[in-house]
Amino acid sequence: MAMASVSSARESLQHALTNRFLPNLEYLLQGSILDSAVEHLMHRLKGLCDNVDTSPEPFHDLEVCMSLRQPNSNQPLLLRVRRAMDRDAPMQMRYLGQPEVDQRRPTLVRSCMDCACTNGILDFLTEMGFRLEFEYLAKGYMFRKGRMKITVSKLIKIVHGKQQDMANEPISQSYIVELSVVAPTGQENVGEEMRVFAEQLKPLVQLEKIDYKRLGPMP
Amino acid sequence: MGVTVLQPYPLPEGKSGAYIIDHLSKRLLSLGATHAGQFLVDCETFISTPQHGGAPSRAVHVLHNSEYPASTFSIIDNGTGKQVSLVADNIFDLLMLKMTATFASKKQTKIESRGARFEYGDFVIKLGSVTMMEHFKGILIEIEYKSCVILSYCWEMIREMLQGFLGMQVPKDYPNYFTTQTIMNAMGQQQLLHAKHNDLYEPMDTVKQYLEQFTNYRKHVNVHVGGAAGVSVQPIHMPPSSIVGVGVGMGRP
């Protein structure tokens, strides 16, 4: 039948999942570097990464984490919404699954779904019953190396009720460094690629898989 | 993208949906329109599971439009009349599945309109058969004028085109969706929404028109089946105007 030529959105999504071209796993390594040494790392990254002429790409994002209590489950559902403060871009919503810290894998692996949204997303989630869990600003630089993404950013605490920017204070005296790839299921070589890259940054920053469970429950 | 008007087509007694679609397609083709593929608009509604606090149940309507294949359109209705709409990437569908403990899909009300798509100069005309759970519910005619994004500037032209191939009178007034609507605000008071005929038209407006019509078709089940089904369909709230409004009241074909 000719009508069958239009497949529903659900069908195409299922197709992307079964054929493994929907990127839904995040491979992650994290580390930190003191403010005083960040310049050296930036130089190193500029040398190692792609986007030579445009790098480093600055970003300034507000991340708002919203939670929804789920019946029959102790774990609330968390969704992170990011809004670019320095440019006009769609808001990004991200779902992150429970991290899997497998000793045999070189990186932390967690399921990950990224979804660009219109500006009403926070209002939408609030109406759904989501509540604000925490929020912070991330300000820093982004580099690329192939399909790897490297961010060097400062996490900033938001102090409400005062003049913006003035009152917001950095959470620590260091920058967070993240190396990540979001790839479809079944691409095991990603981790190895990342490990090799992390090696090259070694004297400056130690990128590791952080076991969140050892850090205690979410604040 | 331009302005789109969605009209239900009243089924004459004794004629099948397929017959009418065939008849209208032939009329369009003989007017000079060309067949340009198929289209599909679907809608699934998720209802929040009852909470301890006795909060009103919320409905999340998730719609797709094959004209915008990378997007998922959703409209949440918080049960007191407030609606928030959202356009997101398709992956939003997978996120909804993460919330099945809180928002359950009402599978029996999954509804869609699909059919042929025609092009005629700057117009796109879609003849959709509406089905819910494989049951034929009616015919929806979508007409888009691609060269303009404000209804008041092009309504006359759309209207003339509609009259041309439907072979019947279409009232001069703007279709219901574009005129002032009353909604209930969070305090339970009636509130007037401003008329949309001078606004910039957005893809979300097309989706909202579909939701309005789909809601009407779902209510029809209600009337025929009644009883237990009637109670469960209740939480799908729509502004009162949508109950009355069946587009521009069209005459007999």
Automatic annotation (TrEMBL), chain A:
The keyword rRNA-binding does not apply. One of its GO terms (cellular component) is core mediator complex. It holds the Pfam family Med18. One of its GO terms (molecular function) is transcription coregulator activity. Keywords: Activator, Nucleus, Transcription, Transcription regulation. Coiled coil: none annotated. Belongs to the Mediator complex subunit 18 family. This is Mediator of RNA polymerase II transcription subunit 18. It comes from Drosophila willistoni. The gene is Dwil\GK10069.
TrEMBL record, chain B:
GO terms for molecular function: transcription coactivator activity. One of its GO terms (cellular component) is mediator complex. GO terms for biological process: regulation of transcription by RNA polymerase II. Transmembrane segments: none annotated. This is Mediator of RNA polymerase II transcription subunit 20. Keywords: Activator, Nucleus, Transcription, Transcription regulation. It is found in: Nucleus.
